[in-house]
Amino acid sequence: MATSVISLVPISGVCERDIDLLILEEFIASFEFLQWFVSKVANHPAKAEALLDAQRSVTQSNGESDIEIYFKDSAGNQVCLLIENKVNAALQPQQAERYRERGQTYRDHEACTDFYTILMAPKSYFGADVALKGFDASITYEDIRDWFRQQPTLGERQRYKESLLTAAIEKGIGNLYNCRCTRHRFLAAVLAASPRART
Question: Are 9 and 159 in contact (CB under 8 A)?
Fold first, then answer.
């Protein structure tokens, strides 16, 4: 049987929607992924027992959730994960607060027993301390890529998923580098224009 000799698939122009759909597919196709994801992001006392619903781009009156996952836990509770996905775009004003408001509305209307707001992005997006930026939890693309690397049953599909996440990670790092370069050029221009610099 023929096998691929490509270590990573070159992918350009990766965007948040690509990662949304990759993650949504895995939630639907792999119960193991759901259990792993919940264990990583939710300080939840009971294990995920069944996936109930998985949606992308859920719009409410106060904004949009990139991904919403509903699962039943081993205690019979219905739990909602509200996931904001970022490759390199900045958070919008009060975005974390609006995610929490949506979760609270779901709970008030008994759509779920509990909820967690999650920021998913490349590690470089969070900074050195992996700050939560107002969300309940965070998960990095690197964590998810590592999970895919440990799945022996995916075959060649594993390589594509890893490549897509790697391209998104590199895009995030590139944006961080460009931002730093722009800031450094700005500071250099300010210093060059100062009276002390001209004396």
Answer: yes
